[in-house]
Structures are given as structure tokens and as C-alpha cells.
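Record type: monomer structure entry
Structure origin: computed from sequence
Chain ID: A
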Amino acid sequence: MRTSTSERGDPAARRRAALTAFLKAEARDKGFDACAVTTPDAIPEAPGRLRAFLDAGHHGSMGWMADTAARRADPATLWSGVRAIAVFTMNYGPEEDPRAVLSLPDRGAISVYARNRDYHDVIKGRLKEVATRFAARSGEEVKVFVDTAPVMEKPLAASAGLGWQGKHTNLVSRDHGSWLFLGSMFTAAELDPDAPEADHCGSCSACLSACPTDAFPAPYRIDARRCISYLTIEHKGRIDPEFRPRIGNRIYGCDDCLAACPWNKFAQSASEIRLKARDDLNAPPLAFLLGLDDAGFRSYFSGSPIKRIGRDRFVRNVLIAAGNSGDPSLAPLCAGLCRDGAPVVRAMAVWAARRLMDADAFAALKTRCRDESDDDVLLEWKDGC
């Protein structure tokens, strides 16, 4: 590495350069596609944007975002001793367009990131290895985060030059596209910050046009309450009837805006670590998923991030996909779930059964379920009558 005259004469500058180079080399060695450095005060516009998002109610039921807003907006509030922040990326892009499964209505579409073992475990384990070696080399304290603390990783990644926040609000890299896992390391060590990346979206609006539920009120803004990823993962209750047909067969998350990004065609992973999807999660049959009880769900999704939402919320999503499938062979399974122990499952089972059964069969089912007492389920029985 060529050093400047000032660095050769300044021990502190030499130390910063050496530690920064060491950190980036360790990141490459542990399988990260990129690592760049920023400072805790590099995102002054983030608090205002976050406040506007919260004030508009676009966070939906994610109350934790409002509860942690102060710490989320200022990294120094999270840890007063931080002097530099390193952000790490790992590309998880699929080899084929994940939207192909949308043409198979009897199969479930699972977001690409969730088709492998939990990315928190994949990223955090490697990040801890990097951080441990860096702490030993620098003698300074470090803290690592992978979506487990109120860290605004996307703005920090943009300020570090790893990409820019695209019109879909996700990070986009000219080198690695839109399929990026992010992690961060806070450190008390002084490091050389990288320059931020410019926005290269231009006039393109492919990601906005691709959204099935019109979740983007404007470029660079998202209303989570309309986002299929939010509805199928974060939202816990009855899903608004407006969105159910638009969800299609997406049973966990949605990749449409990411998959539509033109920068993906330039993406190459520098890592030899490929996060290969489980074959049985690429397009699992809805009939099989509808039959999962709690034990079966936990076993089937062991090690997967899907396990975190629980069986009831997941089967709710599968029932919406079944109702959209037009496949009458799924009707008996949906009818059986009208007697499930979870109200959220019963509610969506009623909706799915109505769409798949003829009027007489559905009327007979309603008679068998006349002892229903849950308000949300009763509302589903009433709707469409």
C-alpha cells in the first residue's frame, strides 16, 4: 500500500491505515464481499427521515422502531465510546430469478434470504471472528451487530461507500446488486473512513413498478403497512382483505422489488461462501405446508428464520396462498383448518375455503362451525354473505 508523506511522518495516521487495511483483509478472508468504514456522525439526515417515517405511521405495528428511535438515529447514543463503524456486506443473490415460483400457484414462494439457515447466525459468527482478531490487533473494544440492535445499517453502509439506498429503500451496490446481507462492527479504534457512494438509480423505477401492493408512496419511501414482507412476517393478526389477492402465493416475504433491480445483472460475489438454498424451500407444496402442526413446523424449519414467526402466523400466510391458488383440491385442507386452535388460522381458513368451495359446500361448512366465538373469525364468516 502506498502511503502519503503525512502518513509516513504521522504515527497515528500510519496506525489508522494499518488497522483499516487489516480489518478489510480479515473481512475478505472470512467471506464478506466488501467492508468499508464510516464515522458515527456520518448520517446527520437519518434522524429526520426516521421521524418522518414514524410520524406517517409507515412502521405499522413495529412499535420497537419508535421505542428505539433516539438510539437508532445516533450511533453514539447506542455506544458513547464508538469512534469508527465498519459495515460488512455479503451477497446472497440467487442463481435464477426467484419470481419464477409466482407462476406455480399450488407452491409457496419464500423470500430468497429465508431459504437457507438463519442469516443472523451465518453473518454474526463470521463477524465475531473478524472482530475478535481486530480487537486483538488494535487493543481496542469492539461491538458487533447483525439486525439485533437499533443500528441504521443501510444509511451507514451508504455513508461508507458500499452502495446507496435505492428507490426501494434497500442498499444497492454497483458491484453486488441489491441482494445484500449487512452487518456492522463498532470500535473505539480510530480508522480511515471511506468516501460515500453516489446514487446511481437515475430515472429507473423498476423496483417501484414491481411492487404488488403499491407499498412505495414515493421513490425512496416505503409504507411498511402495504409491504408483503411486513404483512407476512411482522404483522401478527388478520391481514386486510385488500392485500390478500395481491399476496398471491408469497408465504414468507417478497423479493419483487429486489429482483427487479437492473444492478443485479452486474453482481458478482467475491466470497467463496455461497448461501445455497435448501431444495425443499425453493417451491414447497401448499398442501404439505397446510398440514403442519406446531411440532412439524418447528422441525421442518429448524435453523431457518421462518421459525421465528411461529406456526400459526405462517399457516395464516399459506392459507392466503391457498385461497389465491384456484386449486379445489386444497379446499378440504382449508376447511379442516376452520376448526384449528388458533383464531388467526381459522380466520384465513374461512377466507380460503370460501374462494375454493362451491356455495353449498361452504354453507354446510359454516353450519358445522356455528359455535365460533372469535370476533375476527366471525367477521370472515360474515364477509361475502
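Annotation 1: The beta strands are 34-38, 84-91, 109-110, 142-145, 164-165, 171-172, 180-187, 250-252.
Annotation 2: The chain has 19 helices and eight strands.
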